[in-house]
Amino acid sequence: MQVQGQLVVVGTGIMLGAHLTPRCQAFIADADVVFAAVTDALTEQWLRSLNPSLESFAPLYQQGKPRSQTYQQMVDQLLAQVRLGKKVVAAFYGHPGVFAQVAEMAIRAAREEGYVAQMEPGISAADCLHADLQIDPAKVGCCYMEASQLLFYRRTIDVTAYLVLWQVALAGDITLSQLQSQSALIQVLVEHLQQWYPADHPVVVYEAASLPFLNVRRDTMALSELVHATLNLKSTLVIPPAQPLQPNQAMMARLKQLQSQ
Q1: Percentage of the chain with pLDDT > 90?
Q2: Exactly one of 61, 67, 115, 153 is catalytic; which is it?
Q3: Is 153 noted as a catalytic residue in this protein?
Q4: 197 is a catalytic site residue
């Protein structure tokens, strides 16, 4: 009887060893082969201790190489092992469904070929952000957006809510091949944001701690100073509200009338 291959995509969380759920750890330990896309060698080494079959996706990333090509190579490697009838685990930094395009691509491709494929959640950078910066999205709202998407499309910003821009270091890279920040492109982002925010509006460059002995980065600066900040692939830009919430008096009156009947 032919063994049916399967794919499980898991999230390793952000902090080494602290954020991986027991369920995800069990999937990793039980896999025939594990592929990993994580941000540091220590996490990779720890995952290899759970399953020596681990193979790293890190060598696929190269400066100047289109990320779409890298992502497709990852999917191809995963599916090749699934087709061999193996239990395959793909372990991604953070949450595999949050800024991890490969996870969605691989699951869709596996299911289209009739294989069982599933995703298991992990603690994302967003989860860490809300804890480290003590931002409750229920208070005034919070909008998540990829930084380049803000530049590439005609988006409308609600300045009464928090705006969180992911992958800010790569903002404006139309080649989708860069791995480093370019100050000229960051300046374009700053100028674009000044449609809604004054130049002196405070913003926060945030980076979650990936190792227990590292500090959280929460550097506050004026929006205009962002071009001088050191940014990397882990950097997230958090922009607090520029205006208070405005009560909708007409709606409140209507609701009050309905509830008084």
Answers
A1: 87
A2: 67
A3: no
A4: no
| Mean pLDDT, residues 224-242 taken together | 97
Residue in 48, 61, 83, 93 annotated catalytic: 93
Mean pLDDT of the 77-87 span: 98
Instruction: Give the mean pLDDT of 56-63.
Output: 90
b/e per residue 88-124 (b: at least 16 CB within 10 A): bbbbbbbbbbbbbebbebbbebbeeeebebebbbbbb
Domains and CATH numbers, the chain: 6-123 (3.40.1010.10), 126-239 (3.30.950.10)
Asked whether residue 2 carries a pLDDT value surpassing 60, the answer given is no
N-term to C-term CA, the chain:
68
Give the pLDDT score at 1. Answer: 40
**225-238 residues labelled b (16+ CB within 10 A) or e (exposed):** bbbebebeebbbbb
71, 162, 197, 206: the catalytic one is 71
Mean pLDDT value across residues 176-189: 89
Residue 3's pLDDT is: 57
**Catalytic: 144?**
no
For the entire predicted model, the pTM comes to 0.89
The 3-state DSSP class for residue 85 equals: coil
The full DSSP string for 173-214 is -TTS---S--HHHHHHHHHHHTTTS-TT-EEEEEE--SSTTS
